[in-house]
Amino acid sequence: MDWGMENRLSRLIQSDGHCFFLPIDHGYFQGPTRRLEKPGETIQPLIPYADGLFVTRGVLRACVNPQKSPPLILRVSGGTSIIGKDLAHEAVTTSVQEAVRLNAAAVGMSIFIGSEYEFDSLVNLGKLVDECEIYGIPVMAVTAVGKEMEKRDARYLGLCCRIAAEFGAKVVKTYWCEDFDQVVHGCPVPIVMAGGPKCETEREVFDFVHDGMQRGAIGLNLGRNVWQHDYPVAMMKALRAIIHENASVEEAVDLFEDEKKK
Question: Which ranges of the chain would DSSP assign to H, the alpha helix?
Answer without folding.
Answer: 3-12, 27-30, 39-43, 57-63, 96-101, 118-135, 154-166, 180-185, 202-214, 224-227, 232-245, 249-260
